[in-house]
Structures are given as C-alpha cells and as structure tokens.
Amino acid sequence: MGQxxxxxxxxxxxxxxxxxxxxxxxxxxxxxxxVVLPAYRAAKTVERTYxxxxxxxxxxxxxxxxxxxxxxxxxxxxxGIKTILHRQNLGYGANQKTxxxxxxxxxxxxxxxxxxxxxxxxxxxxxxxxxxxxxVYDAVLGSRIGTARKGGMPIWKYVANRALTAIENxxxxxxxxxxxxxxxxxxxxVLQELPLLANSDDFVFDNQMIAQLxxxxxxxxxxxxxxxxxxxxxSINFQxxxxxxxxxLRTSVEFRLWKWGLIKPAIFTADSASxxxxxxxxxxxxxxxxxx
Length: 292
Fold this sequence. Notes:
Shape: globular
CATH architecture: Alpha-Beta Complex
Number of domains: 1
Strand content: 15-25%
CATH superfamily: Spore Coat Polysaccharide Biosynthesis Protein SpsA, Chain A
CATH topology: Spore Coat Polysaccharide Biosynthesis Protein SpsA, Chain A
Distance between the termini: 26 Å
Number of helices: 9
CATH class: Alpha Beta
Largest sheet: 8 strands, mixed
Strand order of the largest sheet: 9-7-8-6-3-4-5-10
Structural class: alpha/beta
C-alpha cells in the first residue's frame, strides 16, 4: 500500500498499512499512541474490537492474553497484533502490568486500554488519546454512567457503582462520575512514575490506580462512553464483585489514612523499585510472559 501523508494542524499522519511487521507511524500531536488489549477468553469479540479501533490514529496495538486457553492468541496473530502470552493465569491486574510494560518498551507516549470483549466502544480512542495528547489531562476515564442502564448494566451493579463512587469521591477528595470503568488512557509519565508493581494482580488494580493518580496529583479527565452488556462480554460474578467492592473500600480508607499521615501503604509510596521500569519490573516481566 502506498503512503498517504496528511497534515491537520498539529496532527501528523503517515499511513503505512495495518500489518504489525512494520508498526505504523501516525503520531497524534507527535505522540505515539499504543492501544493495549488485556485479554482473557476474548476469542468471540477481539476481532470486532480490533476492526472498530481508529487505526488512522493508533500507531500500534498490543494484546496480552492471560492464559485464557481459547483461540484469542491465534486470532490476534492473524490480525497482525503484537501478542504477548502469560505463562499462566495471573489475574486482570497482572495483565495490565504486562500491557503497560510492553507499551512503554515499544516507545508509547500515550497508552489507551480497551477491553477486547467489546463492552466499551473502541471508536472513542481518538477522543481519549487526544485529551491526553493536548496536555490538559494525564489520564482519561471512559464513564459509563450516562448510558449504563440503557447498555444493559444489571441494576445491582449500577447501584453498587453509584454507592462506591460516592464514597470514593468523599474519601479521595475527587469529583469523578465513575471510578470503575475499564476504559482508560494514560500519558507515558503516569505509567513511568506510578508504583504499579505495588498494586494487586486482581480486579482492584483498576481502583488502586485511580487512587494513585489522586495521590500523586495527576490530572484526571472523563468522557461519556456507551457500554454494552451481552453474553460474550466479560463480567465478574456477584461473589467476585463483593470482593472487589471490599477492596475498593479498603483502598479508599487507606488513602484517607495516608493523607492524614497515619499509615504508609506501599501503593502510595514513591518507591522507584515499585515502578514498571525498575529491575524488579523487568524480572517480573521476564518470569511472567512468553512471546506468542
């Protein structure tokens, strides 16, 4: 395919095709945008997710498979996505750690996490990455609250979401509409500086990361995001949701006690050894993954 050069203000685009052999050089505001797909048994939805990504903006796509055991890896390879495979199932938080490590190693300036189960609309990547590229925000969250019920979110999840969000806003001193969305964009600086290795390998990783953003005074933006709940979309069950909710409350209380100077949780400590770029981060990564 021939090259197509387009100039639009500060946005430089050089389209070089969709394959992964030669990563495209697109550069949104001269910043490399990488989309990461934390996958677990996403074979039925990963292709649809990939094809709805704005590939005229995304420089590279990375998928990390958490040893799901289905055809996700094969489909990802066929699509030309750089694919990383965990040696064993480690959890959603561990998957994100690998995603961000790989994205930083690939030279990302902006990283957007999109769940490959198509619960979130991939077409919003452009807007979310643009909000970070502008320098106005360090992180952007896709908030489902305006469309959650219309998109099929169960009523018990919606009520729990609103209650937990209210408590978190109070304890963290924030004003977010939602803390529990898995649709997120981050600057390179965020991923380099947060002590992410100190976070859980389970679902509460998401919430700990937002608390860390608040603790380290990064600027957080939000964008309204449609959501889709259907049979193929992954969703944790009631028991796991309760465990997650308790973890959220613990994180929020720890944040408030840390702010008062009463405790020093590792997740709020600026310890370089807990960063992804540390020797520990490299060692953990090497022990965790195998190239697919």
